[in-house]
Task: inverse folding
């Protein structure tokens, strides 16, 4: 088991607080303590319009530009093709982190394999993670629970998929909500 908090399933809590601070910071650009109710409503509308514009620009960039892959992995290219730039950068960080992982098969029977993935976190410290892979169901699961908490495969699971010499991940690991083709329901679409 990992000896620091980076392998903790509670990691998503810090991410939630960071997003709350980002939202508060964003609104603070438009609204002050001394704003009247009328000013608040107008500024709130301006704020949402600004946010929608930023999303439209980001969506356009996702369709018209490509972030190069950091590795030669076909799996990374699979995510590059589907995910928004922002989410793909998070996935890339996991691919880059994979270089610090050493994968060892500990048990295998009937298409179900158990791996120990050692991740080097400093010159002499390795955190160990147990990763299971079911070749029949094409399912990989790591005890760090990054996929369950943040919706992206962790470096430990990616290391096992490389060890298994897979060239694609199951569609269950490509979440539609991170797709650049997803239609945002909260963004106002003007009718022609």
Result:
């Amino acid at each position: 088991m990992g000896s620091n908090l980076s392998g903790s399933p509670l990691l998503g809590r810090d991410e939630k607080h960071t997003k709350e601070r980002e939202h508060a910071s964003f609104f603070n650009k438009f609204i002050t303590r001394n704003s009247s109710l009328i000013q608040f409503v107008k500024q709130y509308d301006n704020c949402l319009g600004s946010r929608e514009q930023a999303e439209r620009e980001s969506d356009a960039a996702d369709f018209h530009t490509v972030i190069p892959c950091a590795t030669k992995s076909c799996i990374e290219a699979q995510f590059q093709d589907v995910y928004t730039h922002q989410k793909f950068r998070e996935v890339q960080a996991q691919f880059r982190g994979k270089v610090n992982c050493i994968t060892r098969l500990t048990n295998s029977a009937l298409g179900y394999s158990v791996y120990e993935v050692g991740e080097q976190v400093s010159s002499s410290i390795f955190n160990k993670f147990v990763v299971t892979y079911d070749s029949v169901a094409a399912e990989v699961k790591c005890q760090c629970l990054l996929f369950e908490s943040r919706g992206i495969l962790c470096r430990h699971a990616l290391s096992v998929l490389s060890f298994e010499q897979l060239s694609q991940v199951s569609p269950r690991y490509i979440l539609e909500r991170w797709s650049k083709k997803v239609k945002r329901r909260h963004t106002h679409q003007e009718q022609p």
